[in-house]
Specification:
heterodimer; A: 8 helices; B: Lipocalin; TATA-Binding Protein; seven-stranded mixed beta sheet; five-stranded antiparallel beta sheet; globular
Chain lengths: ~425, ~260
């Protein structure tokens, strides 16, 4: 009897251990190896040249005040622009003191004093400006952003005063100890004597009194392939999936989180990575630095670019870079998008990235015609029409691109930027 | 040989083995049962962060960790087309039926296609509409919604973009998702949740960026809803935190 009970017990124990082993083996979550994603971890190969933040911060224009209410403007494509800018970037600005904008009678300064006005066309944080100009770090104001610098020499006194204008238009910061001399200012202003006269117009911008001649160009171009961009933007292309179900040939690559949309015809890409915002400070300088770094790694900088105000949002999240060709900005219109890169950044992480895949070949450009842009009364009338009652914040020459079979035609035009950031071309 | 003694030895050996296996199974038991757990099961440093930032958890933390894979589906109309205006219902059923699956089926299954595939989303609606999510194998796709508009306690109209589930890529194996505790700890420890946030729901389902095409791709994700209506998704395979795409979409569309 005892022996039978023991046999039964043994049998039950063996069966129970088998059942328990089964449950352990097939249900143990920790034992299941994490599936390694497919190999081919491709290092992103740089597609275009890299760039540094300081090279993207050059001013939109330099206004030269020659006294007696005479003015002229140097745009980045003018010879004197670089001469003046080089001179300024070698000087030191120290001992900042804050004041309200009304502390100086600017109308008086504009009309009578020799001076140079550096206009950036957007807010540049002090922190970044230090990379371009020798500015003494000043903790008190360093959180502010600067939109203009005005350096002028009093006619009657041997004195140069330098003012940095805060972007909100409320304050100025005077550099009490700047090593600029009256001779420096006079020399810079002297360049202006040889240039087209500009008149102060409508409370803010300077309009040329004469026609300005700019070359029309034809430039050869090449294009990044969708494949190159896919490999570059997804570090594991093996996990991405391509969707092409639209008739216009638009391709979408996605790894379920990030998505890359490539519009074939104009060669435009938009990449989105819906990163969740964290609960920390969104710092403009950091965001700009991350944007530059991201472009360095993903597509590179083909040609010169300048940090500009984005048209849609004034906040620090959207960073826009304007492409320059032969030192003039390229402004596209209508459905053809070209000439800028735009990134949305959340606390230093790129949430979206848009750019053209077209690469202009600077070495292979041809002058097709000399175009003269209107000046004087003709331009002023057109300006008023184009602005349609809005305040004009800036006027500058630009190229309007038209894509051809294998060349890009660049036609010079006047462009205006309105107070709300919108850019319009005067055709 | 003494068979009886051998049996005794074996009995003792198996008894010990059973105890060891039993202990193993028992320690894992909490991870398996479907019983929900509360915030005390989060890692201690996460609990500390919660206390410091005043984050509250007013939801149960689900415990399931099923194996899931990415999901591909196709909208029968492009989402942006806006051709899909709400369809007016006639007769208009009472609003209370949304809380009862049978009554809802009875009233509307003839009108709304695939109605049995949709599940009520407790927190998705507002004072004008109820929201249902399309489900696949029991998991909701948070981006595919059936909206029932109501007024004066009657459901007046509905809006729905029908979808087709496409066969998934068999080459990619299904993977066990991260436990919800990890997803929530991630959001708290990496500073995604603002101070004073109150989590009101945690749910597993599918979420993806809405692409500018008919075909859409969704990944298994934990949806974490806050009291103030903010939505966070944590990808349930990689653990990355993602925001609702609507804000980003606007920025993405920004152009000159």
């Amino acid at each position: 009897m005892m022996e039978r009970a023991k046999s039964l017990l043994l049998f039950l124990l063996v069966a129970a251990s088998l059942v328990q082993s089964y449950f352990l083996a097939y249900n143990m979550p920790n034992m299941e190896a994490k599936e390694k994603t497919e190999l081919d971890y491709v290092a992103a190969d740089p597609l275009g040249p890299e760039e540094q933040v300081e090279n993207l911060l050059f001013p939109e224009e330099l206004v030269v005040h020659m006294g007696g209410n005479k003015h002229t403007v140097f745009y980045p494509n003018d010879n004197f622009y670089n001469l003046v800018l080089d001179k300024l970037s070698m000087r030191e600005f120290k001992g900042f003191q804050q004041d309200t904008i009304a502390a100086v009678d600017w109308d008086e300064v504009r009309q009578n004093d020799l001076g140079i006005e550096v206009r950036f066309g957007r807010a540049v944080p002090f922190e970044l400006l230090q990379k371009v100009f020798k500015i003494d770090s000043n903790f008190l104001f360093s959180a502010d952003s600067i939109s203009r610098i005005w350096i002028f020499a009093r006619q009657d006194r041997e004195e140069v005063r330098t003012f940095f204008f805060s972007a909100d238009g409320r304050n100025v910061y005077e550099a009490l100890r700047a090593d600029l001399t009256v001779q420096d200012v006079q020399q810079c202003v002297g360049f202006g004597q040889y240039w087209i006269p500009f008149s102060y117009w409508n409370g803010g911008v300077y309009v040329p009194d004469e026609e300005k001649s700019v070359d029309s160009l034809e430039v050869s171009f090449s294009q990044y392939t969708p494949d190159q961009m896919q490999r570059n933007l997804f570090n594991d292309p093996g996990t991405t999936q391509m969707i092409q179900d639209r008739e216009d040939g638009t391709r979408i690559y996605t790894d379920t989180k990030r998505a890359l949309k490539i519009e074939q015809e104009p060669g435009w890409l938009s990449y989105t990575d819906p990163v969740a915002p964290t609960d920390s400070q969104n710092d403009l300088s950091d965001n700009i630095a991350s944007a530059v770094q991201f472009v360095n790694e993903h597509g590179g900088w083909n040609g010169r670019h300048r940090l500009v105000q984005s048209e849609t949002e004034a906040g620090g999240n959207v960073i826009r870079f304007q492409q320059y060709f032969k030192d003039l900005p390229i402004l596209s219109s209508g459905s053809f998008r070209f000439g800028y890169m735009q990134l949305a950044i959340q606390q230093g992480t790129v949430a979206s990235y848009e750019r053209s895949m077209i690469v202009l070949d600077e070495m292979r450009s041809r002058v097709t015609a000399k175009t003269s842009l209107p000046g004087g009364e003709v331009l002023r009338t057109r300006l008023l029409q184009a602005a349609g009652g809005d305040v004009v914040e800036a006027i500058y020459p630009a190229y309007m691109p038209t894509p051809g079979e294998d060349v890009m035609r660049l036609k010079p035009v006047w462009a205006i930027r309105l107070l709300n950031g919108e850019v319009r071309m005067i055709g | 040989m003494d068979w009886s003694r051998a049996k005794s030895v074996l009995i003792i050996a198996f008894l010990v083995l059973n105890i060891v296996l039993g202990y193993q199974l028992w320690t894992e038991l909490p991870e398996r049962t479907d019983a929900s757990i509360d915030w005390t099961s989060l890692p201690p440093e996460t609990q500390l962060n919660m206390t410091n930032k005043g984050i509250r958890l007013d939801a149960e933390i689900p415990t399931e960790t099923p194996a899931m894979r990415d999901l591909t589906y196709r909208f029968e109309e492009t989402p942006g087309s806006r051709a899909n205006e709400p369809v007016t219902l006639d007769p208009q059923p009472d609003t209370r039926i949304v809380f009862s699956t049978e009554e809802l089926q009875e009233a509307l299954s003839g009108v709304i296609p695939d109605l049995d595939q949709y599940r009520f989303d407790n927190f998705g609606g507002n004072e004008k509409m109820f929201v249902f999510n399309r489900t696949v194998d029991g998991w909701p796709i948070f981006d595919v919604k059936l909206e029932l508009y109501y007024k004066n306690q009657k459901i007046t109209s509905y809006r729905l973009v029908p979808i087709d589930i496409l066969p998934s890529d068999e080459a990619k194996p299904a993977q066990k998702v991260l436990p919800a505790t990890k997803a929530v700890a991630n959001l708290i420890d990496r500073n995604y949740l603002p101070a004073g946030a109150v989590i009101k729901e945690i749910q597993l389902g599918y979420h993806g960026q809405i692409l500018d095409s008919e075909t859409q791709v969704s990944a298994p994700s934990w949806r974490v809803l806050l009291e103030d209506g903010e939505v966070f998704y944590v990808l349930a395979i990689s653990g990355e935190a993602v925001t609702d795409q609507e804000d980003n979409g606007e920025q993405g569309e920004a152009r000159g």
